[in-house]
């Protein structure tokens, strides 16, 4: 096969970190080429350089034999490079057609474009209405918009950044079919992921990045997931362990929890019932946008609900404020680290005070005991191995993994009765993710009820005792994790089995 | 070309230095402006910044300095607490007027009774009046989601019309021979807010201003509510997560800033101004916004900023009288200062790097 | 003493339209700025600067047209100060907008020193061959100057631009989600700067109309909150161009009505009548503030491409 894109010695440094160091590899026409690496390994910087969003400090690229130096995405697109972003670059308030036209060079007039969208979406079995408003679409449909936007430009190279992190297993299958077909037509695909099984089934070739450098190239179909993982992480990782404990009495009871979403494009919660026992880890799976945020806000107290909808240890807490819930022992850790779980520009000790005040007595008569707050922050930093020069540093100065350890640690160290966490290891490096999972399991072992909301099924299967799926604001009947198959879970995520079976 | 890199930590050094840089830049730009107007730039700048403090008649102007700084600091302290929470009360001018009207109203109603409790009652009425005026945008924001910036500003114009109606009608001095304006409260001992120490310009309003600096300092740095206010300004969602109830913060900050502005108005009408007149409002409520930013929303900074701004007022008057510069020049000068201040702020949050040749 | 029949409906409508024009111009400019995701609270400052620039230029040159051009350029430059500060220096938009207003008020008063009490050169009226003779409509709708018609054309143009053109779509996209727009490859900063300059030019035109046609003379602080009302109008209009026209005429109606009531000596103190436009603005804001569905999602947020 002929080489389509060739990278030679690409280097890009940011202050304090070399994001890419002398990266070289080739992508062939019709090849599905995996770019594998942990969070922070430099994958995004590399694709941003290929897509013209970032300029390399040194090194060259050639595309189809021609020197290739895109100054901006426009030039990349003109040269035949298209990209599907991980955080979709879509505009909620605009229609599908408007979104697509924004990402195209020489977009055809409106009516013609709508027709072409319909054509491509039928041809590739990706049904899509050009006049739908993006905000009303599911995450899977949004990804379709991005893909069709790319396909309309008949790209030579399609870059896909973590495309499956938001899809159900069934949707993943459809996506893989589309990608295989494209590759068969000669399109090269650069596929970025950290999911090893996926790469083994889909990709023809894999380049592995670690700390900004290429540490290996391999044929993923001939490697085991373990080999790939070790190349990616550079060390063998231990799986979280946990002694078998018998769940105690019910600590968290949710009864008929219904709530309207505060977000015009959000999902309303519909009659959710759930019991979580002491010592139990309850996993809540499901595709993003199916009510996870609303569920979280209802439990944290940021969006209070009717009094009897949520009970902790037999006490109704549904209409209490976040701090009143903390007093009772219901603690939460939201998904978004910067700006929700932590205030980016505030110091770590101020962030410790943020949720720790009530249970750790960090103030007296309304006056803050700064020394106690600092001691609490220090305790978190030490117990959870948060890498920071000092607790006087701001939250945003920490890496994602370190800040997430701090956020989870802050709640765990307050010895909650019930802890609800949303996406606890999202965008976190493997070592930190393992530490966080271990901490959550230890907490359950110590007798707390733990609820983990996550879109990472592997994670849920690894840590939770029981699993339920959120779909369209409804929660499926929880099932013991060890008796579930991937296929069953996939169906539940697609809403097939989410209808309520009487308890 | 230069490129910006976000600092992980705001630079303490630059936080302290930028206001000074801004003042210097304003002096340069202002000097140019004066030069264009045909005045000697160096002499004008010296007249504004030096003569009131060290010049021949400094003994007179120094007193004026505190008199002018008092209301500015008092109002700016209130505003800064709201600004910290991301709540933009820009209608302090209106709250100042209403405070003055209410305070003066008590005095005029009690006239000519002489009693010790009249002045305290006036203080109470002034604070309450400003508080009530500030509560209008607060309630509308909490109930209907109405933008507090626009409402508080519209209320300034309403207050100004109310002021002229008072000066011409209800509060007009019956012995004033038909001239607009109320009785002079300085000639009504029970209601007067006199200079406490002769020659210093200190009156009760100045005392209140310095007290507010101390209280605000302790409140914002030590008290949980102060922390919650800062948290809300830094990151509203994190604040709700931490249990801050945004509506309460809106009520508290708008009410507080209104009350402080109202007090400033009361101390002014019973002291330096002496009476309700059509042109009683002199723009303190707007200048205080500059003072709040000049002081980086920090109480100590605001105290210094208030003194500096008072200096430009006093110095501005001086230039006006001696060099014939228009009064408006000082206003433009103050606006310029705020521009430079905001621009230089960049240095504390970002590192500016020279880049040899970067695209775009 | 009170004689309401002294108020002629046709004259009232004509006056209403004229009185609405300055805020209409400023508001349609600000609408474009806000659609691009920038909140410029400096409208008042830009209007008053436009007023004095327009006034001074037309007095000096004798041409009202040159006055308008000067006003637009002057205010656009002032707006660009705001644009550069907020887009390159990443300053807080609320604070910078306030600074712009405070500076504009002082700066205009400074320039305007020599121009108080002068009459500007008269502004030509557009008399479409006898059409103004038509009863009622002639007087009310067809006897205005060019700028009144221009303002309506401008609204139509903005509406068409935002709804039907690609640059308009790009502008909305930038206001909706600046990170996504940047990721696709649009230059967020440049687009916003252009919108801010356009908003400045419109506000300047509005201010100049006030000083050259409506009043017509120069007084310090003569905009008296018109810029703020223009800002309120954008909220009232839910960021929809034609509703800006509606809002502006309602506001103009209230202003004119209260002036007429003052003139015929209605038994309400003048001060209270003068408050009416501001109070009406507040009431309208309250009614409309529930509907934020068309508000640009990135409005007022600082954009810094970290990549």
Number of helices of chain A: 16
Structural class of chain A: alpha/beta
The CATH architecture of chain B is: Orthogonal Bundle
The CATH class of the largest domain in chain A is identified as Alpha Beta
What percent of residues of chain A are in strands?
A: 15-25%
Provide the succession of SSEs of chain B.
Answer: EHHHHHHHHHHHHHHHE
Largest sheet of chain B: 2 strands, antiparallel
Sheet with the most strands: spatial strand order of chain B = 1-2
Question: What is the distance, rounded to the nearest whole angstrom, between the alpha carbons of the first and last residues of chain A?
Answer: 58 Å
Q: Which chains make the largest contact?
A: B-C, 50 and 50 residues
Layout of secondary structure:
The complex is a heterotrimer of chains A (503), B (360) and C (307).
Chain A: E1 3-14, E2 17-28, E3 32-36, H1 43-50, E4 58-63, E5 66-67, H2 73-78, E6 81-84, H3 96-102, H4 110-123, H5 139-151, E7 157-161, H6 169-184, E8 188-193, H7 196-202, E9 205-210, E10 213-218, H8 225-233, E11 250-259, E12 269-277, E13 281-285, H9 292-300, E14 310-312, E15 315-316, H10 322-328, E16 330-333, H11 348-360, E17 363-364, E18 367-368, H12 370-383, H13 400-412, E19 418-422, H14 430-445, E20 449-453, H15 457-463, E21 466-471, E22 474-475, E23 479-480, H16 486-493
Helix pairs in contact in A: 3-5, 11-12, 11-13, 12-13, 13-14
Chain B: E1 2-6, H1 12-36, H2 41-49, H3 51-54, H4 58-84, H5 92-110, H6 118-144, H7 148-168, H8 204-222, H9 224-234, H10 236-241, H11 246-270, H12 284-294, H13 299-323, H14 327-344, H15 346-349, E2 350-354
Antiparallel strand pairs in B: 1-2
Chain C: H1 9-35, H2 43-61, H3 64-87, H4 93-111, H5 137-140, H6 146-164, H7 166-176, H8 178-184, H9 188-214, H10 226-236, H11 241-264, H12 270-288
Helix pairs in contact in C: 1-6, 1-9, 1-10, 1-11, 2-3, 2-4, 2-9, 2-10, 3-4, 3-9, 6-7, 6-11, 7-8, 10-11, 10-12, 11-12
């Amino acid at each position: 096969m002929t080489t389509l894109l060739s990278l030679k010695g690409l280097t890009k440094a940011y202050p304090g970190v070399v994001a890419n160091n002398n990266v070289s590899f080739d992508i062939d026409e019709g090849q599905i080429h995996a770019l594998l690496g942990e969070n922070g390994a430099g994958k995004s910087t590399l694709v941003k350089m290929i897509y013209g969003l970032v300029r390399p400090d040194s090194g060259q690229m050639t595309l189809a034999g021609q020197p290739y130096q895109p100054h901006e995405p426009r030039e990349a697109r003109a040269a035949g490079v298209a990209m599907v972003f991980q955080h979709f670059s879509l505009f909620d308030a605009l229609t599908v057609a408007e979104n697509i036209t924004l990402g195209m060079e020489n977009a055809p007039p409106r009516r013609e474009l709508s027709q072409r969208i319909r054509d491509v979406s039928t041809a590739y079995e990706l049904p899509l209405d050009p006049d739908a408003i993006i905000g009303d679409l599911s995450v899977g449909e949004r990804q379709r918009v991005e893909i069709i936007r790319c396909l309309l430009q008949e790209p030579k190279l399609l870059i896909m950044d973590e495309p499956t992190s938001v899809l159900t297993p069934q949707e993943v299958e459809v996506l893989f079919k589309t990608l295989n077909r494209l590759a068969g037509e000669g399109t090269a695909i650069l596929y970025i992921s950290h999911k090893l099984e996926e790469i083994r089934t889909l990709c023809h070739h894999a380049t592995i990045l670690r700390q900004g450098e290429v540490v290996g190239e391999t044929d993923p179909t001939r490697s085991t997931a373990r080999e790939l993982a070790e190349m990616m992480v550079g060390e063998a990782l231990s799986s979280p362990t946990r002694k078998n404990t018998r769940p105690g009495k019910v600590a968290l009871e949710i009864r008929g929890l219904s709530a309207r979403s505060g977000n015009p494009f959000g999902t309303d919660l519909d009659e959710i019932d759930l019991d979580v026992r002491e010592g139990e880890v309850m996993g809540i799976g499901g595709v993003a946008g199916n009510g996870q945020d609303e569920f979280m806000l209802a439990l944290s107290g940021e969006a209070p609900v009717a009094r009897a909808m949520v009970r902790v240890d037999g006490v109704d807490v549904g209409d209490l404020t976040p701090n009143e819930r903390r007093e009772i022992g219901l603690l939460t850790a939201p998904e978004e680290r910067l700006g929700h779980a932590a205030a980016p520009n505030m110091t770590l000790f101020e962030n410790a005070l943020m949720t720790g005040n009530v249970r750790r007595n960090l103030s007296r008569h309304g006056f803050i005991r700064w020394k106690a707050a600092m001691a609490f922050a220090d305790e978190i930093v030490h117990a959870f191995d948060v890498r920071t020069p000092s607790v006087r540093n701001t939250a945003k100065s920490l890496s994602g993994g370190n800040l997430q350890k701090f956020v989870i640690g802050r709640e765990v160290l307050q010895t909650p009765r019930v802890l609800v966490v949303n996406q606890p290891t999202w965008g976190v490096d493997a070592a930190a993710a393992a530490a966080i999972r271990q901490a959550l399991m230890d907490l359950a072992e110590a007798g707390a009820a733990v609820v983990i909301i996550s879109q990472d099924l592997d994670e849920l299967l690894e840590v939770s005792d029981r699993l339920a799926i959120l779909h369209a604001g409804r929660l499926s009947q929880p099932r013991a994790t060890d008796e579930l198959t991937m296929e069953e879970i996939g169906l539940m995520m697609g809403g097939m089995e989410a209808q309520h079976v009487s308890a | 070309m230069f490129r910006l890199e976000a600092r992980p930590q705001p630079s303490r050094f630059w936080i302290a230095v930028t206001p000074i840089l801004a003042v210097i830049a304003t002096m340069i730009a202002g000097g140019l402006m004066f030069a264009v107007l045909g005045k000697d730039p160096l002499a004008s700048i010296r007249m504004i910044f030096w003569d009131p403090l060290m010049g021949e008649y400094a003994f007179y102007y120094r007193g004026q300095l505190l008199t002018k700084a008092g209301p500015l600091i008092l109002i700016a302290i209130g505003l800064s607490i709201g600004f910290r929470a991301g709540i933009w009360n820009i209608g302090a001018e209106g709250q100042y007027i209403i405070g003055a009207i209410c305070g003066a109203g008590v005095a005029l109603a009690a006239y000519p009774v002489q009693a010790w409790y009249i002045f305290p009652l006036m203080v109470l009425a002034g604070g309450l009046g400003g508080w009530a005026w500030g509560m209008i945008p607060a309630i509308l924001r909490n109930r209907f989601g109405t933008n507090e910036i626009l409402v508080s500003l519209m209320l300034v114009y309403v207050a100004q019309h109310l002021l002229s109606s008072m000066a011409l009608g209800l509060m007009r001095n019956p012995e004033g021979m038909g001239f607009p304006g109320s009785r002079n409260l300085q000639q009504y001992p029970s209601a007067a807010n006199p200079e406490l120490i002769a020659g210093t310009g200190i009156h009760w309003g100045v005392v209140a201003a310095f007290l507010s600096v101390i209280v605000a300092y302790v409140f914002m740095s030590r008290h949980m509510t102060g922390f919650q206010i800062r948290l809300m300004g830094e990151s509203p969602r994190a604040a709700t997560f931490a249990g801050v109830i945004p509506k309460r913060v809106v009520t508290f900050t708008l009410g507080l800033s209104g009350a402080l502005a109202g007090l400033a108005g009361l101390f002014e009408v019973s002291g330096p101004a002496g009476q309700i007149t059509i042109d009683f409002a002199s723009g303190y409520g707007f200048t205080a916004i500059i003072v709040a930013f000049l002081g980086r929303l920090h109480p100590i900074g605001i105290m210094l900023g208030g003194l500096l701004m008072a200096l430009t007022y006093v110095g501005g008057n001086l230039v006006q009288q001696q060099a014939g510069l228009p009064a408006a020049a000082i206003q433009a000068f103050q606006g310029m200062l705020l521009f430079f201040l905001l621009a230089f702020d960049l240095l504390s949050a970002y590192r500016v790097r020279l880049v040899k040749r970067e695209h775009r | 003493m009170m004689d309401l029949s002294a108020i002629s409906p046709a004259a009232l409508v004509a006056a209403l339209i004229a009185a609405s024009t300055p805020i209409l111009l400023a508001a349609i400019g600000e609408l474009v700025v806000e659609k691009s995701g920038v909140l410029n609270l400096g409208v008042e400052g830009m209007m008053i600067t436009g007023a004095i620039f327009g006034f001074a230029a037309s007095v000096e040159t004798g041409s009202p047209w040159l006055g308008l051009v000067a006003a637009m350029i002057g205010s656009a430059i002032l707006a660009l100060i705001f644009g550069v500060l907020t887009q390159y220096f990443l300053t807080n938009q609320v604070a910078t907008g306030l600074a712009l207003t405070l500076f504009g008020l002082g700066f205009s008063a400074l320039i305007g020193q020599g121009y108080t009490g002068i009459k500007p050169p008269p502004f030509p009226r557009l008399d479409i061959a006898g059409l103004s003779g038509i009863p009622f409509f002639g007087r009310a709708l067809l006897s205005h100057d060019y700028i009144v018609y221009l303002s309506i054309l401008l609204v139509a143009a903005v509406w068409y631009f935002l709804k039907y053109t690609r640059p308009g779509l790009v502008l909305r996209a930038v206001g909706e989600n600046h990170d996504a727009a940047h990721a696709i490859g649009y230059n967020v900063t440049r687009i916003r700067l252009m919108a801010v300059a356009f908003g400045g030019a419109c506000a300047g035109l509005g201010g100049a109309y006030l000083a050259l046609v409506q009043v017509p003379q120069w007084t310090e602080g003569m905009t008296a909150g018109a810029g703020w009302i223009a800002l309120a109008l954008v909220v009232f209009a839910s960021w929809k161009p034609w509703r800006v026209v509606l809002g502006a005429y309602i506001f103009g109606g209230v202003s004119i009505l209260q002036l007429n009531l003052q003139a015929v000596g209605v038994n309400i103190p003048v001060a209270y009548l003068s408050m009416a436009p501001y109070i009406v603005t507040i009431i309208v804001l309250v009614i409309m503030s529930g509907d934020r569905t068309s508000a640009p999602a990135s409005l007022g947020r600082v954009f810094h491409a970290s990549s």
